[in-house]
Write a structure and sequence with these properties.
Growth Hormone, Chain: A; 3 domains; transmembrane transporter activity; two-stranded antiparallel sheet; mainly alpha; MFS_trans_sf; 460 residues; globular; 14 helices; membrane; single chain
Length: 460
């Protein structure tokens, strides 16, 4: 049987196959749209990030207050609706990345998603501005809830924002990374700083939104605040179009998810085979025949040996390579790398569950506290600005001080590793949640005494 002799293919024929057959997947051709001056493309992307964050945070940061004070929803309904919407917003980047990698490319995905963004933001603005699209104001203790039509209009806009945001967020950072040449050491160093400034601009937009726009929404008019957010998305989209000629664009080169399924299918088809004792009997191609999405071959590792069966060459593979029945060692190793990341991914879920309290429980807790500060009333959602400000200052401090020291004394060109930084972040969230629990106990104690504590207790 062919399954029993798959790994006994003659060495000469095997080497001919390994070195002579090209991977049939589409490559990534770099397309330079006119002037590709590195200084302009990343700057436009950073500006887009700032305006996009400014716009969407004007909606998300104060969403609890809008649902309770304007649509008159209960706390349980608010928590459920916001959690569902937030979960959708976290899932849509996965879909956006899949489509961008397989078909559209990052640039087209951003264009299409920005249009969805604008439609969603415009719908939300109309819902908040036109009296017919929202329930009447409370009359004493009587607060009529929103009817089905009013909910449909508002949540349609909200979920269009979720899908638009997902497409933008999944493609904007990869597009920014494409602006830097990996073969140029100076550009590689600038690329590392670009990621830090990308995060800084995102938080700068959130900071401005959670202070200025949130205050406008609660003290002047919700329609005006949402209108400003919509204008920010429009400006981001316009600047992005104007800067098209400055971008380095890449054609889609296939989704990594497709590679995962190919390895799974191929290894399952050959599940009865024994893995060769020598790695040279596993299928691989020369560097110049690699899919250009892969810059180099990956060395074989001994973990997850069952997946190596996907790279076993059968006699039928000598005629024509089918990527669903024969995978390269590099493809298999890429999948193994994803499996090694699973513990980190699971830890990220726990972190996200805790962090999500910032948008729901944290705001509801602030509503039940004393918000007055002299003659000024602090919007509960504005406390989010202090978290954003802390992140911004930390990013600047890390990039200018800590990373510089780490490069000098640790001999690492990038400073602290990604895992080290993530570990510090997880430790910080543990301390933060423990502090929040103490504040909540203090708040309940003050309620029993009839003396509500200040919202500033939330700052730690």
């Amino acid at each position: 049987m062919e399954e029993q002799v798959g790994h006994h293919v003659g060495l000469m024929d095997h080497q001919s196959l390994l070195h002579g057959i090209r991977n049939t997947q589409e490559g990534l051709d770099v397309k330079q749209s006119g002037n590709t001056e590195i200084k302009r493309g990343p700057s436009i992307i950073l500006g887009f990030v700032f305006l996009e964050s400014l716009g969407v945070c004007g909606i998300s940061t104060n969403l609890v207050i809008y649902l309770s004070s304007i649509l008159h929803e209960t706390n349980a309904s608010i928590a459920m609706n916001i959690t569902t919407w937030t979960g959708t917003s976290y899932f849509t980047p996965f879909l956006g990345a899949l489509i961008a990698d397989s078909y559209s490319g990052s640039y087209k995905m951003i264009l299409f998603s920005s249009l969805l963004y604008l439609i969603g933001m415009g719908t939300i603005t109309l819902s908040a501005s036109i009296p017919y699209f929202k329930p009447p104001s409370c009359a004493g203790n009587l607060c009529p809830p929103a009817n089905n039509v009013e909910k449909l209009i508002f949540y349609s806009g909200l979920y269009l924002i979720a899908f638009g945001s997902g497409g933008v967020k999944s493609s904007l950072l990869p597009l920014g990374a494409d602006q830097f040449d990996e073969d140029n050491p100076m550009e590689v160093q600038k690329k590392g700083s670009f990621f830090n400034y990308f995060y800084f601009c995102m938080n700068a937009g959130a900071l401005a939104s959670s202070t200025v726009i949130v205050w406008i929404e609660q003290n002047i008019d919700w329609g005006i605040g949402y209108g400003i957010s919509t204008l920010c998305i429009f400006l981001a989209f316009t600047c992005f179009l104007i800067g098209t000629s400055t971008f380095r664009l890449r054609e889609p080169g296939g989704s990594p998810l497709k590679n995962v399924f190919q390895v799974l299918v191929a290894s399952f088809q050959k599940r009865k085979l024994r893995v060769p004792s020598e790695n040279r009997f596993l299928y691989e191609v020369e560097d110049n025949n690699l899919n250009p999405r892969r810059t180099h071959r990956l060395d074989h590792t001994d973990e997850f040996r069952c997946l190596d069966k996907a790279a076993i060459v059968l006699n039928s593979d000598m005629k024509e390579v089918d990527s669903w029945s024969l995978c390269t060692v590099t493809q298999v190793e890429e999948f193994k790398a994803l499996l090694r990341l699973l513990p980190i991914w699971v830890a990220g879920i726990i972190y996200s569950v805790s962090y999500a309290q910032m948008y729901t429980t944290f705001v509801e807790q602030g509503k039940a506290m004393e918000t007055g500060l002299g003659s000024f009333s602090i919007p509960p959602a504005s406390l989010y600005a202090f978290e954003v400000l802390t992140v911004m200052l930390w990013v600047l401090f890390y990039d200018t001080v800590i990373a510089t020291i780490a490069r000098r004394y640790l001999g690492d060109g990038h400073g602290l590793t990604q895992l080290q930084r993530m570990g510090i972040g997880h430790l910080s969230i543990i301390i933060a949640i423990a502090t929040a629990a103490i504040v909540e106990m203090k708040r309940k104690e003050s309620v029993n005494k009839g003396e509500p504590i200040s919202i500033l207790w939330q700052l730690p």
